[in-house]
Design goal:
single chain, alpha/beta, GMP Synthetase, Chain A, domain 3, 2 domains, three-stranded antiparallel sheet, three-stranded mixed sheet, 2 helices, 9 strands
Length: 157
């Protein structure tokens, strides 16, 4: 068993009115390795000036966690298959909408990986099989109910 920790720190700012909802949602996320990230509610959820657009929001972190786990698992699977990957990029998109019971949720995440290989790229079928295996074995994907799709992974040899 492994455990993972994160610290969340927020404080009411001078002159802000908590009772009226007039307070900044800006906060700091800290992780056990020392990384700190400026965070806020999404400006789609809490309008400015009470959210910070340049900070990461929970919805973005959720989409990034899925894409990040998929990439790391894919790289492992590609190495096991004897492939040499030189680069990997993804433009992941999450959609928030009412779920089956009418609650807002990230219901769908679409991954669009672009993989650069050293030498010839694998066939489309082999690439799809690697992405399928990566999704199957991704710890984060195994922890959620959101529909995750991998679209048209681009391979460059």
């Amino acid at each position: 068993m492994a455990t993972y920790t994160a610290q969340v720190a927020w404080a009411l700012g001078e002159g802000e009115d908590f009772a009226r909802g007039r307070y900044s949602r800006a906060h700091i996320l800290s992780f056990d390795g020392g990384a700190q990230i400026a965070a806020s509610s999404s400006p789609h959820v809490t309008p400015a000036p009470w959210s910070v657009e340049s900070a990461v929001d929970p919805e973005e972190m959720f989409v990034a966690a899925v894409a990040n786990c998929h990439m790391l698992t894919f790289l492992h699977k590609a190495r096991e298959a004897g492939l040499r990957v030189l680069g990997y990029r993804d433009h992941a998109v999450g959609v928030m909408e009412p779920n089956a019971v009418g609650r807002l949720a990230i219901t769908r995440i679409t991954l669009r990986p672009e993989v650069i290989y050293d030498g010839a790229a694998p066939s489309t079928e082999a690439s799809e099989a690697l992405h399928h295996a990566a999704h199957r074995d991704c710890f984060i994907a195994n922890s959620i109910t959101t529909d995750v799709q991998v679209e048209g992974s681009a391979a460059v040899g």
